[in-house]
Amino acid sequence: MKITFRKLFIFCFILFEFNLHGQFPEENPPELLTNPDATVVTSNTFKMDQNIHQGFFSGNVIAIANNFKMRSNEMTVFFDENGSEIKKLIAKGEAILIQEKRTAKAAQMEYIVAEDKLILTGNPEVIEENKDHVTGNVITIFRNSNQMFVDGHSRVILLRTTQAQDQQQKK
Fold first, then answer.
1. How are beta strands 147-151 and 155-157 bridged, if at all?
2. Is pLDDT at 60 greater than 70 in this prediction?
3. How far apart are CA 84 and CA 86, in angstroms?
4. 3-state helix vs strand vs coil in the chain, percent to 5
């Protein structure tokens, strides 16, 4: 996924389309329909420092793309030297990630774009398909290969259901 500074900069000013109390909107932003690779970020404040190639979002930060939603208290975006592509994102403070079959919570989440890698620290927890729970000191998720590594005091709770229970839950 190629995220450019221009795309992020344009969409970061759509602050008031979302609830300012940090809730995810019911529907995805309309910009994602016309530009599926876009990422829309909203927050109470946004500061850009092109000298150090960083953007700073703070207060009720919500980032939405076609394949994930992320919420945190603050987010720092690191750009390449040209300022045209995002290298990584760091979300801090009650960070939550929601994907189709996964929810993750941590004090901090770092997303490295080139590797499609997410590093969760600070009491991280991952819930797979609303049942299996994974915790540890550091959880690393490789989104493109659907792999997960847990470092330090890992705990995995596998909650398997029968086919009858699965059918009942789908109703």
1. unpaired
2. yes
3. 7
4. 15, 50, 35
pLDDT over 80 (residue 12): no
Task: Please say whether the beta carbons of 14 and 95 come within 8 A.
Answer: no
Q: State the Cα–Cα distance between residues 107 and 124, nearest whole angstrom.
A: 7
Distance of CA 12 to the CA centre of its chain: 15
Amino acid residing at 15: L
Dmax over CA atoms of the chain, in Å, equals 58
**CB burial of residue 120 (10 Å; 0-12, 13-18, 19+):** buried
20, 24, 28, 31 alpha-carbon torsion, rounded to 10°: 30
CA angle, residues 63, 116, 9, in degrees to nearest 5: 35
Which of 18-27, 75-84, 146-155 shows the lowest per-residue confidence on average (mean pLDDT)? 18-27
What is the β-pairing status of strands 68-79 and 132-135? unpaired
Q: Which two three-digit tokens encode residue 168?
A: 């009942």
- Are 133 and 103 in contact by the 8 Å Cβ rule? The answer is no
CB 62 within 8 A of CB 41: yes
